[in-house]
Amino acid sequence: MPRTALRVxxxxxxxxxxxxxxxxGTTGGGAEPDAEPAAGAxxxxxxxxxxxxxxxxITDAKGVTVSPEKPPQKIVCLVALCDDILxxxxxxxxxxxxxxxxxxxxxxxxxxxxxxxxxxxxLSPEVEAILSHRPDLVIGLEDTHGKLAPALKGATTFWPVQxxxxxxxxxxxxxxxxxxxxxxxxxxxxKTFRERLAKxxxxxxxxTSLIIFGSDENFxxxxxxxxxxxxxxxxxxxxxxxxxxxxGSYSLEEILARDVDVLFVETLSFGAPDGRLSDKLxxxxxxxxxxxxxxxxxxxxxxxxxxxxxxxxxxxxxxxxATAALR
Length: 327
Known about the structure:
The chain is of the alpha/beta class. It contains 14 helices and ten strands. The protein has helices at about 5-15, 80-90, 110, 125-130, 140-145, 150, 165-180, 185-200, 235, 250-255, 275-280, 290-295, 305-310, 310-325; strands at about 60, 65, 75, 95, 135-140, 155-160, 210-215, 220, 260-265, 300. A hairpin with a 5-residue loop joins strand 1 and strand 2.
């Protein structure tokens, strides 16, 4: 897979797509993927939730300390994880640059359309537009939006996040629940996600699954080491795919050799829709020989949720859709 296409997906796996990423991948701090358990093995994820206490100051799992002047109510989201957490807490962003809110499991199209959009796109959100909403807190991706910190300093509080695993996402949920005082909502959201994950683990499928992504016939494989959603898959199916770094990916020949039973496809679009990735790959004669293709088990999924959301609500949607397909 060409370097440019792979960089695009690695950025999407971090937050959103819409251009090329200057850096690549998630930074350290995410948990290493667990070894695959046997099908039908006892759930390994605890469903217990520790109480969340309201706080005016938190230090997240990455060592970032956040201390807004008051419990934040007007929050601007520059990364979809922020939108995800706010919906879980029963809140709506003051402004956003993510499309995940339009998903029916979030606000839905009608309500999402009422949320102001931050101009400038994901890579270059406009500082003046952000501050026009008089936010108590701005949440963005550390390796992309950290450059905005000096311009926001003194006017609002900026919180750079960098999720690398579902555990990181839960940690951010708990931290924002503490800062906003919405502790019960945070505990409920964490409990719901943990129960969904534990249930999926208990019913683990012995089928081989795969998530691929792309905008044209050049595709990539979502690896548990670099993709939060893919990090769930060794827990719920056979997922024999590892990251090959920025310069490597898998060929259709290799995928064919693994006898993939269920194939999830993330079509990444830039502006106007340009057709589904699965339809484009159908022109390759090897595509029709993959068991998932022969058996009608190719599922096009919403990349806004699967690639970008990465919070407990998004990951709950991923689990629901994946386990249904893997039955």
